[in-house]
Write a structure and sequence with these properties.
Blueprint (H helix, E strand, L loop, with lengths): L2 H37 L6 H8 L4 H15 L3 H18 L3 E2 L11 E8 L7 H11 L3 E5 L14 E5 L2 E5 L2 E6 L11 E8 L2 E9 L13 H24 L7 E6 L7 H7 L3 E2 H5 L1 E2 L4 E3 L3 E4 L2 E6 L3 E7 L10 E6 L3
Parallel strand pairs: 2-3, 8-9
Antiparallel strand pairs: 1-11, 2-16, 3-5, 4-5, 6-7, 7-8, 9-14, 10-14, 12-13, 15-16
């Protein structure tokens, strides 16, 4: 064996390690780059808007792979960088929460609220009713509940309906309003003023569509671009209408399927004046949309608290027979 061959054999492990280290560095940078893309261009460009609306847990896996590559390449500092990137992806990019429920204040009334997109074509009325009744809620907000199947679903509750939205109240409904969208002609918001044993409250039920045309996400590039741009434009209008519906004073909540992830600027818009119950007292990813009825992958269903209402607990229930998981929240009303 010549001297040149020996030198080449010695160089190969070094080259391999350098290559693995370079890949590990890319894996470490990826979550920070994705976070920056979601923050700066965000929804102003359709391609980055698609990243904002896409599931996020996969970004946690990339630096985990990077940590493994760094370990194989014997790069200790690079492995630690990937561990830090994985934690950043977990808590900042993917929105994992580690909050604990709050003890109910002794001097403030407490109510329990649920929101659930029940999947409007289900025929399992009795299962839906049994599940909701088992939560013992004071207020229940349903989406995709326009069918006659859901009429008088919950005995002992007063109800209001608008579009595919229904709100059930264990108490008295004082006023109801379901404004018509001037562009689509649909009713996607239901505003109800109620009187409960805990006191007066405004309840705003919402169902924000993904786009004007329903159906699956397009797979071809040009239809996908139009689909995303149309969805952003629609959310812009819907969330502006929602903010206009906030009462100038008094306690109120907003609940429903918003088809909008926490990374969206529209979530940030609501966070300026409302409290996201999952961010306040939830734990885990809080995913509510279940892909193909098996894999929870996005958080798009919310209960928001405003006007002095304070979230105390937040939990996610199993999804069946829907493709959304119900959100059940306990709230403390102002004195």
């Amino acid at each position: 064996m010549s001297d040149l061959t020996v030198v080449e054999d010695r160089r190969r492990p070094g080259c391999l390690r350098r290559g693995l280290a370079a890949l590990a560095l890319i894996c470490a940078i990826a979550p920070f780059a994705i976070w920056l893309v979601m923050r700066v261009p965000g929804e102003s460009w359709w391609l980055t808007a698609g990243i904002v609306y896409a599931p996020k847990p996969q970004w946690v896996l990339i630096p985990c792979v990077g940590a493994l590559l760094a370990l194989v390449a014997w790069r200790g500092r690079l492995m630690l960088l990937n561990v830090a990137a994985a934690l950043f992806a977990l808590f900042v990019v993917a929105g994992y929460e580690w909050e604990r429920p709050v003890e109910p204040p002794p001097d403030r009334p407490v109510i329990r609220v649920a929101t659930w997109n029940v999947f409007g074509w289900t025929e399992q009325r009795e299962l839906v009713r049994e599940r909701i009744m088992s939560w013992d809620c004071d207020i229940v907000c349903l989406q995709e509940a326009a069918r006659e199947t859901f009429r008088r679903l919950l005995p002992g509750y007063e109800s209001a309906m608008g579009g595919d939205l229904r709100i059930y109240v264990r108490g008295r409904i004082i006023n109801r309003e379901a404004p018509v969208d001037p562009v689509t002609g649909q009713r996607r918001m239901l505003i109800v003023d109620v009187e409960t044993d805990a006191g007066p409250l405004r309840v705003i039920g919402v169902h924000v569509p993904r786009a004007r045309t329903h159906g699956g996400t397009p797979r071809e590039l040009e239809p996908l671009r139009r689909y995303i741009e149309e969805g952003v434009e629609l959310r812009e209008r819907k969330f502006a209408e929602l903010v206009d519906a906030f009462p100038p004073e008094g306690p109120f909540i907003v609940a429903g399927d918003m088809n909008t992830p926490p990374a969206s600027r529209f979530h940030a818009m609501l966070s300026e004046s409302l409290i996201d119950s999952h961010e306040a007292v939830g734990r885990g990813f809080g995913h509510t949309f279940v892909w193909r009825r098996h894999l929870p992958m996005m958080r798009i269903d919310y209960v928001w608290a405003g006007g002095g209402v304070e979230p105390l607990s937040h939990r996610i229930e199993p999804h069946r027979p829907s493709d959304h998981r119900p959100v059940v929240v306990e709230l403390a009303l102002p004195e």
